[in-house]
Structure formats: structure tokens, C-alpha cells
């Protein structure tokens, strides 16, 4: 039988705390899950440093990737079949793109990307198109199948309906992670009626739309998303750990540039330091590797690297205060000066971090972030943009919220064994 | 104020998916949580290799330790106060013992203990009594406090009621892990009415007992425990991963004994190989470290070490068949012979693994495992052993169940590129 | 289009707390739900007097009937199609039988059946075969369809597989009520993994069987059932209310026999009193009607009827003590005598009530209650009776448990304004 | 011991699906629950006609009243003690007011109040102050205690903090019903983190306030409330049943005014018809009584009463279309005319029903509905009105949403056996 149509003799299931079971019938999907590139996602946490705030948030991207697949599977197997606008030939492509959409993520992606100028989306494409086990499986389907999967994930595929299943303001990716992250952190936000959303989803040529009767479930989803961003994803303790992690990477890179001799050689980091990472190098990285180095580096000579690694490993994080960069520019300069005088390098120990979110937006052509709006399917078959029907969504639509905080090591500043006068001044400014 | 009575100015809470919140008011507890020895538990999974079967089971021992503490906190703060038999001076000791009871666990404890002759209970004691941050905190309470905590965990403390809170057939340890492991794996077993159990718990001089009116909740707990053992803890896929992990450790040790030259030097393993592990060595171990080596060893020369590490990292596990060691002894010998002839070392690739559990037992003096029975407190204040009142518990009491399985690499045996005739014979015997 | 195949233009859903949604596509099912005989089930509580113990247990038989339908729908639409042994022509019949299986239940069935010699199964048959809206719908399918539905419910239909879906030791009826009653009472028993049970169900010529791999889910179901019986269904407070209700009916019947002149005429009861209930009379009964009379009868002259109704309406229930009818026969006679002397009629105020349950049984030919065993489908396609494979089920199989209690009005006996000496004696015997 | 301080020898618990357990230690509370006026709440559904839309919504006001009590109990026992602003002498008063706040509700209150000019708040006061079992219990506490309880419920008590526990924009009443109604209907709205809300509640002289750190939990509560209003409380099917119920009452009153001779005498209604209801009359009413009459009236001569009762009992409800009373006034007049011509009385069969909600409001002095705002307690101990801090709440604050629908019997209008031309015209206007 044709590989693309080949089914397992017996359905395989994964026990999943969020969707109860993840069901696999397609041999292609089963084979993809077994590849080493996909298994590697087990060693990368879904929420990076959040486990230091929410101790339950230790779940991996493997976990989430199966979940996104399962949601798309339900859509393409239970909701779309037989409806106009849906081309059933796109089924397997949709499933593969859902499963693999996060494949290029590395350990603590956000920090690594920033410091080493990486782009996980590029790696996703490279894994799918390169010399990998994943590529081999996809290529068995057809010669151009890997490219199609890659295009869906890169949002350049010409059937935008397929893209919208995994990349839009309401898609399987977000639906899974909101619920999953809520489950593992244990917060009571993140709940919405996914069953209902699936029931009211309809395929349209351009994108997925939602029957008007499900508008309240869509509203609820948007509110959940909003709460999860501010309660979980932007939690200041998580940001504090992220700040330290970023500074560790900066410091290691800086030391390397200055020909510092590491006690424990950073073999896995050389190509990163030189901005010359190959796919092979990249695939060797995972959180176990990174944590291994951080632990070893607790014994380095360099005081900053050593201290920051110690902080990360043992969760001695930075404290924070609210900070308004627009109004408090001078305060920041003054603190920088005082930190230097106190012998605390402000480049590593005085950090402004900002979080910003736009809960929903309709389409604003020409703006930086063009976001496809959510459409409601009215009884007369007309489409209407969500915020025109929903008072609540209208109220928050397009309203960006940004928070800034200033992070610093409170223990250093409270340690009066050196420079007590300067530190007193710092404390007065920080009001701690 | 006395350190042992010192309270935080504001209660701290941890969001916990199982107990909703873990509450900390005591400074001693807060300080213990912040020690590096306790934070290290974040890097050790509660269920070892189970995450390869249940992808949600990525939660750490840190997670569980807080949970046990929270259950004991509810008992000593909400249930016991004011009841005869309870000495409120034991409160802090109970809380510390609960929090620290698993402190000595290392990465994949079960396998490491077997191969390297370690004992995590010894390490727990050493951490509590040795030169550690945990010891420093406990010693601030009083000079003999570390010893008392250690005795409670070692079950030698003279107030056996305190011991029974964390080590008996129904204790805070089991109550937490059954619920927690059920939550993170997503299985529907593991549920019982802990609220009710807490409500009917009563202190007695010897141990915790349960009011007769809560008997059904106790029964339910025992059934949950039984199901979790067979459905989760002894799951054959988990056992398969455990078998491979144990064999990796064996192989590395064997290679070291034979002066094999590792490409990637096993620095963290030397003292293990020589059965000379110090506390300092031990505390450096965690799952990140171990996984780091396993990944590096995928590139070793030694074919067996390389293959086994590859299997573990990429989840290419062994298959299994039921096996009765009593009746099928000859079959096993024959398979060993055939494996050797086929060039597959049976010491590493043909493994019998047994799981065995006794769901509940009353007291059988003189027997190998003397287990304290569960007592019901009758209306007339008499105590009666559970199985005398509960038909269901009586039915299963003392009935040990044991399962044996034979694990092997199905891919090797199905690969007919070498020794096809022998492999055919192996397959016939294994009925695969 | 043929009525039996007719589908609604759009699927209808009922929001259901247990199954999330109940889905209806078949016009026949939709029409049946709309009949007045089915709507009448809204006015009959699923758990009779249990709401006086568990205040959440106010759910109706309408609720449960939809649930049983939904479970069977999932079996015949998602699990059975395409499997040998399943005749898809039986689909609609299975759905209708599931929906209608409790149709003949009246208000507080158990008590009414006992006192007035009714049989709800007869009424179910009469409603299905008689001149009713339900019959009219079923007859539109085909002339013999009502008879077939009736036979499935009466367990005389020749396809025993269809019968086993709703009447066996593990069927859709039990699966729904255990979960539903647990949900509405709020108890933590009653949970089992129905998703898994549905996944491992297989049709066989004789009956539904379960794949061996699902054995633990079956065990869990049996334990849930056991706990629900003793924790909820046989709860002594519920039994106390049931005892009073039964005595009210007895008293009213007795008064009528004795030509007592009711202040409030029992129009709805006349045919009951005379054991001449027609279907028309029966269908007029529901719990609102009965409660109406009980409220009115609080103002009757007859002291016993008045008192019992007052007790039921205002939840002034009887107290109880354990009672062993075999050993304590004399005690009972003595109490009867003393009650009479104290002017408290023992026929109404001293009641022995017994509860008895057999958690599971294999087939014992010739015995009173022949129960079809649960079969496991082994890998070699052989069937094995559950208790031969499951240690736990074997341990409890065939073990009947019976509890007896003696119910009485404690307030009467504690009221020493009359016959204090006799009452003191009664209290001594009852140990209250 | 003083009655107000008297405790039960053993705590009593009610199993509750929402709060797990409701705990009672105070004898006063236990005695109140046992009164016949409180037990009567078992016979009045919390959500009136909603059970005809959501079949799980069969829970009673008894259910909810215990829940409100339990939330207040947690506040006054676990959260407030020891905090400035809280007078512990108000504890019992708060508990009693919480338990009894809905005591005066009758069957289907909304419709009854409208048609018969009743006010359930008056009845609550009358029950508490009149010659009732409830009054007797309260008066045992102290002579002025009934009056104080009554004042708290009537919002005239001078300690407004106590009032705010059960009557404010975020109080125990709303917190219970949102969760409870969500649980029993099974909808996925209505969830918010009550545990967190309770943790951040603080007593202030004027009212309960919430620590700033809990702002997101408050936001979530407000969104839940919004969704529950539109998804559950204002559900058009529920409104349809309510419309029919109101029209039944109108019709019966009208018939009585016109000296119609009822086949089944409406004994319980006479005082209602004459707007002369005494407390005694009122307490005899409950839903069983009302449903009894509706069933009997299905056999009345009057075609309208008979038809409407038949519709209500058998759930043959009115259909509806959107309707804008401002713009579609002429359409309505035309329909009225056509209905009359078709022989369908528009007074009973063409009904405009409006639902309107204000999700949150800050204080607008002088406006019709002065609502106390929700205050956040900032770190500097200042109070700030919620909408000034919360973007989301600000966005919806003060925005009233109103929906209007037109209800009518679609079956009548589709029945072309009489006046087919007129009915065709009606259908064209209604677009059905």
C-alpha cells in the first residue's frame, strides 16, 4: 500500500493528561514520532524557566507537539470531512505540520536565539529539508512532501486554510498550549471549551472560521489567553530566571571572545560562540547538556560566570521592582553608576526586562504585526470580524499592554561588608 | 524570636496542581526549600524512566517532596491539634522529616543503587547530618534536631506516631505520590478521597489510625495503590527503559574495569565505578549529568555501550514477552546459547525482569517484610486491624502478585542480514 | 427518506455534565426525546430519596437516560463499526433501547412497587407497546420495531449482544449511573476509565467482551461499583427516608381499606390502593404529584400519616442501630412489645431494613440470580472469565455482603413526657 | 453554655459537589438547617426553568444556600480572624445571614413576583421576624438577633463589611452560584480561582477588598460572571419556558377574575389571585405544588390555559427570533393584528422578552442602580477602584448589554389547517 495511506494494524495511543488519549493510526505519524529529532523534544521543556516559578511546569515540547497533532487530527478527521472548502488531500500534510511545528526549538530557545542569533524556525526548516530521520520519513510520502510541510510551518503554503490550523490567532497550537500549560502549572486560568470550539469550526477557503453560535467560547478562549500571558508566561520570577540565563550565555560568549581559559571546556558552545552553528551541532543541544555546563561552570574562576550559574542552578534569582523606562531613565543611569562604584557589574546585574502582549487584534494593514483576524460565520453565511460582534473583544482589541521591570541581585546590595554607603544609596533608590 | 518558632512575615505559597497550593509559614521550612541540596531534587524525576511510557510523567522529586510536606502540614495544623496522643512539640520535626524524606535520592535511583551498591537512605542521613546547607538550617533549630529528623526518616525515632505520618501502609508519602503520579501521567487510577482520610485520621500513641466511618475511603486508597502499581509503576515499557539503563551502567563499569579508554571521560562516574562515592560526589549527580554522558557515549567505540545509549536517548526500547522463570528455565538457557551464536551478548540483550507487589498486609511477625497494619478506630474506642473489618481488603491481604518478563532487542532478532537461521529459531522460541 | 435512516439537518446536542455533550443525529431519537412519556422522566429523580442524604443528588432519570443513550451511541458509532460480530442493522434498535430502558419507572419506584405490587419493567413494555407517543414514533420505523425494542429491554431479544449493551454486569446503564451519581452526589468514588473501557470493548456473538489489555479498567469499574453501592445507594440516611416513605404508602393504603375519610382526597392513589392501576393512571404519577399529597397529608387527622408525612417533607428522619436478625430476634420482639406499651405503633415505627450486594459473580448455573460473567478476550482470541485472570475480582467474586439496620424515631423515644420508664427501657436496649 | 457559642459535639459535614464538604460546628447553624422553612428550599430549584435547557440544572436553593454559608464560614474562620477591621463578634451573624439570604424565595420566583406582585425579600424578612421555626432558633441567640440577620440581608445593617460578604459585586452569593450553576449545567464557563480570591480578601471598615496581587483572579471572576449570564441565565430556551410559565399564571389569574370555574380548584392560588398572600400561604408553595397544578390544568376546558400547561409540562416551548423594539415597533403591531386574525391570542402567544446585564460598574452616584465598586488594596495600603487598574475591566465597565427576542408558538403558525394565508404572511414577517 502507498506509504501515505498506510495505517497501523492497531491504533496506538498515548495517555495524555490534557486530551486523555492521543490517537495514532497513520504509519507516517508513528514513524515521525520515532525519529531521533522528534524524541529530542522530550529533553526540551515547553516553558523554559517557568518550572522555577511553577514547580509543575516541567513538561516537554514532545508533550505539546503530540497535543497539537491530536487537536488537528480531531479537526481533519471529525469536523472537516464532507464540508465544502476542505480538501481531504491536505489531511496528512496538516497532521505532519501540526506534529512538527516546534521541531526546531532548542533548549531555552528565547535566550539562545537572542544571544547567539539563532532562529528556531530556520532549524525547523533545516530539519525537515536536511539529512535527518524526519526528512527520510517525509520523503517516503513523496518527493515534494517535506517541502510542503516546511511551507505550512513557514506560513508560505498556498492553501492558507491549512496554515490557519496551526498559525492564527486561534489555532491548534495555542489551544493546546494554553490548556497544557494551565494543567501542568496548576493555575485555574487557561480553561475554555475546546469541545465547543471544535464543534463550531468551519473550513473556508482562506482560513478556519467559527460559527456565530460559538462566539462566547471564542471570547472565553481570548480571555484565557490573556490571563495565561500575564499570570504564567510573563511571571516576573520566570523572567528573573530568564534574565540570569541570558546573562550566563552572554558572559560565556564574552569570556570566549577574550580568550578566557575555561576549566571545563565548552565543547558544545564553540560553534555558538562563533555564530557558525551547523544543524548537526544544534541537534546535539538539549536542556540536559546546557544544565551540565551550568553545573560545571559553578566551579569556574570567573566570578561572574560562576555566580550566575550558581544562581540559576540553585534558584537564587534576582529580585525586581517596577520600572518605567520612559520616565525613569535618569534613575537607571544613576543606578548603573552606583553599581559600578560598588563593584557590581551593571551589564550583568542590573537588567531591564519588558513584557508586552496584544490580546487580540483585527487586521491593520501595513502595521508591524499584521495579524489575521478571527471571523465569525453568521447565519446568512456572511463572515464578520470577531470584534465587531463581541463587546468584550472589541473592548480589548488592539490594546497593547507592556510591563517593564528592573532586575538585580538583592543579596549583593544588602551585603554591607563592602561599600555600605553606596549600597545604602542603591537601596534607597530601589526602595528596598 | 527562637528560630524554631519564627514565622515568615507573609505566608508563601507554591502553586501546586495536586493540592492547589502548598503553604509555608515557618521560616525553617522556607530556608530548607532554598538549600542547594533540596533544589537539586528539581533535577531528578519522580518516576525515573516512566516519562518514556507516559509523556506527562516529567515531574520531579522536588514536586513530590513539597506535596508530602503539605499533607503533613494539614495533619499537624488542622487535624491533630488538641487531640490526645498528639504532642504539639513534634510539629516542626514532622514537617521537616516530611519535606526531606527523599533528599538522598539520586538520578534513576533504582538502577544506580543496584549497579553501584548505593543506598539512598544512607545519603539522606548523610545530607542531614553532614556538612550541608540543609544541616546548617536544621542545626539552627537545636543541636540535636538534625539527628531527630534523620531518625524519623530512618524509622528509629522513639515517637512512632511521627514516623507513621511518613512511613506506613497509609502515609503522607504514598498519599501524595499516588495522586501526583496519577495527575502527571493522566491515568484515571490513583484517585481516592484524601479530604476524607484526613478528616478521619486520629493520633494514637503508636501510630496514626482511622475512624471506622472512613473505612471505605481507606479501601479506596488501597485499591488505587494496587492499580497504580500495575498500571504505572510496573508498566513493561517503563521496565524496558529501566533494563536498558541498568545495562548501560553495567557496561560502563565493566569497560572501566577492563581499562577501556573512553572517548568522553566519565569524570562523574569514577568514584561510582570504584564503589567509593563520597557525599560530595553524590550531590553532583543529577539526571542532566547522566543524560549528558549517555548522549556523549552514543559516540563511543564500544558497540554495546554505544548501542544501549542510543536506545535510551532515542527511545528504541527492548520488546518483551511473558516469562515464567520456574517453568521456562530451559527455554532461557537455550535462548542464551542462541543469542551467543548469533553474536548478541545475552548478558546485555536478554534480560529477565520481575515486578512484585503486596497490596496490603497485616502484621506477620518474623516475616521478611514486617509491615505495620492499618488500624480502624471503632466507636467503642477499640482498634481493629483493617482486614478484619473490610471484606475487600481481607480478600487481597497478604496476596503477593509477581510478574516476570523477558526483554530483548526485537530489531536485532528481526535483522536477517546475519545469522538468519539462528535468528529464525530465536523468533520461533519467543513467538514473535 | 426512510424514517429509520432520517437524520436531522443539523446535529442537536445536549450539554451534559458527565459526557460533556450528548449528540443526536437520528430523527427517531430526537422524536422520542420529545414525547411526553420521555419528558415525564424529568419529574422522577434518578436516586429517589438520596437527595435527603446528598443534597446534590437531585438529578432526574431523564438525565440518566440520555447518558445511557450517549454511551451506546459511542459504542455503535465509534467502536463496533466494521468489527466481526456486529450487525449494523441493530444500531437504531440499540440506541432506542438504551434511551428507553427506564421509561416505566415511576416516582420512588422501589417503595411504590413494594407497597402497590407494581413492576416498572411491565410499565416500560406497556408504554412501548401501548397507545402512547413513544409507540407512535417507534411504529413509524416499522410495525415490529416497538416489539423489538421491548424485547431488548426485557432481555428476550434473540441477539444477546444487543441486550448485553444495556443489561449485563458491565453495561452502558451501569457505566452511566455510576459516573452520574458520583458527579451529582459529589463523592469521590464512582470514577473509572470509561474511555479505556470503550476502547477495549469488542462485539462477540453472545455479548460484549473486553480485550485483556483493559482488564485493570474493568477491575476499577467493579471496585467503583462496590464503593458506590455501600457509600451511596445503601447509605443508611437514604434508607431511613425510604423506610418512612414506604410506611406512608402503607398507612394511606391501610386507611383507605378502613374507609378512612381523607381531608384531602387521594385521587391519584385510588387505583393504586385497589391494585388496579392502568397505564394512563400510572403515567400521571410523578414526584411532584406525590410530594403534593405528602404535603397535604401533613394536615390529616390520622396521627401516623400526618407524622410520617411531616417527617418526610421536613427531613425529620428515623435514627438507626446495627441489627443482626439472626441473633437478635428476641431483642426485636421485646422492642415491639415495649413500643406498643409506650403507645408507638411498631408496624410503622420499628423497622428492619436490609441491604445486600454481590459485587461480581461468575456464572453459577441453577442459582437464583444467574448472572452473565464478564469475559476477557485474550491475545489468542480465546475468552476467559474475568475472575480467572483478576486476583482482585477473584477475591470478591460471589461474596455477598448484607447489612441490617433497625430504624426508629429517636425523638419519640427520647420524649419522656409520657411513659418515661418504658422509654428508658427501650433506650437501654437500643443503647442510645 | 451560651447558645450562640454552643458547638456540636462532633462536626457535621454535608458532601457538596462544589466545595467538597460543607462543615458545620455551630449548633445555631445546625438547628437552622433543620427548620422546615429552610428544608423547604429543597423543593425550589436554584435556576427555575433552566433545567429545560440544561438537563443537569435540577439543583435546589437548599444546595446553594449551604454553599454560600460555607464560603462565608471559610472567610470568617480562616481569612479574617486577627485582621484589623474585622470584629469577631459578627461571625455568627455573618454565617446566619449567608445561610438564610434566599429563604424567602418561592417557586419560579421571577414569574410569580411579576404576576402576583410579590417580593421574595419581604418574605425573607417575614420568615426571619415572624412566627416560624427559623425565628425561634435565631431568637434563642438573643432577642435582637433575628432583626440583625434581617438587616444584613436587607442591606440596612450598620456594619457594611458584613453586608458586603453576601451582597456586593463580588460576594459569597455570586461566588457560589457561578460555580454551582456551572457545575450542574456542565458548562465550561463559571470557573475562577476562588481559593485565590479568598486568600487575597481583606476586611476593611466599609467592605471587603482584594489585595492587588489578586487582581487577575478578580478579572477572571468578572469574565466568568459575564459568560454565565449570557450563556446560561439568559439562554433563550430558558427564557421561552419562563415566558410560558408567566403566561400560565396570567391566564389563571385572568380566568379567576372572570369567574371561570376550574375543574381542578386552585386552592393554593386564591390568595395569590387576590394579592392577599399571607406568610402561611406563601410557605406552602413550592415547585411540587405548582407542577401539580400545571399537570392538572392540562385537562381544563379553557384552551389557552390547557395549551400553555401542556407546553410547559411536556417541554413544547415557543420559538424565538431576534427583535429590536426600537426599530421594529410596526412589525410587532402588524404581527399582533395578524395573530388576532389567525385566532391566536397575541397577549399569550406573541411575547417580547428582554435580557440585560451590566458586567461591572464603578460607583455612579445618583444613578438608578448604585453599585458599590470593587476595591483593590495596593501595596501602600491605598484602595483603588478595580477598573482604574484593570484594562479588561475598564474596557467593559459600565457597558450595559441588552438583548430582545420575540417568542411565539411555531407549531401554531406552521399549522395550515386554518387560516393558511394569514399564517403564511406571519411566517414571512418572522422569516421562519
UniProtKB/TrEMBL annotation, chains A, B, C, D:
**SUPFAM superfamilies, alphabetized:** HD-domain/PDEase-like
GO process annotations (BP):
dGTP catabolic process
Gene Ontology molecular function: dGTPase activity
Pfam families the UniProt entry points to: HD, HD_assoc_2
Where in this chain does the record put each HD domain? 61-178
Q: What is this protein called?
A: HD superfamily phosphohydrolase
Give the originating organism. Oikeobacillus pervagus
Amino acid at each position: 500500500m502507498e506509504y501515505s495511506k498506510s495505517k497501523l494494524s492497531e491504533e496506538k495511543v498515548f495517555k495524555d493528561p490534557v486530551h486523555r488519549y492521543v490517537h495514532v493510526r497513520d504509519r507516517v505519524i508513528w514513524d515521525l514520532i520515532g525519529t531521533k529529532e522528534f524524541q529530542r523534544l522530550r529533553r526540551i521543556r515547553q516553558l523554559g524557566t517557568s518550572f522555577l516559578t511553577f514547580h509543575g511546569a516541567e513538561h516537554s515540547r514532545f508533550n505539546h507537539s503530540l497535543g497539537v497533532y491530536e487537536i488537528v487530527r480531531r479537526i481533519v478527521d471529525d469536523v472537516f470531512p464532507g464540508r465544502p472548502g476542505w480538501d481531504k488531500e491536505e489531511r496528512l500534510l496538516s497532521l505532519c505540520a501540526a506534529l512538527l511545528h516546534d521541531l526546531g526549538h532548542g533548549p531555552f530557545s528565547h535566550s539562545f536565539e537572542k544571544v547567539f542569533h539563532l532562529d528556531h524556525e530556520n532549524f525547523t526548516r533545516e530539519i525537515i529539508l536536511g539529512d535527518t530521520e524526519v526528512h527520510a520519513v517525509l520523503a517516503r510520502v513523496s518527493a515534494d512532501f517535506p517541502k510542503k510541510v516546511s511551507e505550512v510551518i513557514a506560513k508560505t503554503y498556498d492553501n492558507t486554510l491549512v496554515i490557519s490550523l496551526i498559525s492564527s490567532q486561534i489555532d491548534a497550537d495555542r489551544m493546546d498550549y494554553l490548556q497544557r500549560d494551565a494543567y501542568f502549572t496548576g493555575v485555574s486560568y487557561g480553561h475554555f471549551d475546546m469541545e465547543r470550539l471544535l464543534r463550531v469550526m468551519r473550513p473556508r477557503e482562506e482560513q478556519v472560521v467559527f460559527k456565530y453560535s460559538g462566539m462566547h467560547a471564542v471570547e472565553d478562549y481570548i480571555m484565557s489567553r490573556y490571563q495565561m500571558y500575564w499570570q504564567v508566561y510573563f511571571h516576573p520570577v520566570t523572567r528573573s530566571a530568564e534574565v540570569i540565563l541570558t546573562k550566563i550565555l552572554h558572559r560565556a560568549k564574552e569570556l570566549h571572545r577574550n580568550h578566557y581559559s575555561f576549566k571545563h571546556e565548552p565543547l558544545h558552545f564553540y560553534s555558538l560562540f562563533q555564530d557558525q552553528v551547523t544543524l548537526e551541532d544544534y541537534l546535539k543541544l538539549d536542556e540536559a547538556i546546557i544544565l551540565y555546563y551550568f553545573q560545571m561552570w559553578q566551579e569556574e574562576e570567573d566570578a561572574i560566570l560562576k555566580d550566575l550559574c550558581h544562581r540559576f542552578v540553585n534558584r537564587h534569582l534576582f529580585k525586581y521592582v517596577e520600572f518605567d523606562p520612559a520616565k525613569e531613565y535618569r534613575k537607571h543611569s544613576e543606578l548603573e553608576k552606583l553599581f559600578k562604584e560598588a563593584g557590581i557589574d551593571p551589564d550583568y546585574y542590573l537588567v531591564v526586562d519588558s513584557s508586552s502582549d496584544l490580546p487580540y487584534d483585527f487586521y491593520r494593514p501595513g502595521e508591524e504585526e499584521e495579524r489575521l483576524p478571527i471571523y465569525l460565520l453568521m447565519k446568512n453565511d456572511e463572515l464578520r470580524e470577531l470584534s465587531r460582534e463581541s463587546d468584550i473583544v472589541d473592548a480589548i482589541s488592539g490594546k497593547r499592554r507592556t510591563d517593564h521591570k528592573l532586575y538585580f541581585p538583592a543579596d549583593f546590595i544588602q551585603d554591607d561588608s563592602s561599600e555600605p554607603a553606596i549600597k545604602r544609596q542603591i537601596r534607597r533608590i530601589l526602595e528596598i
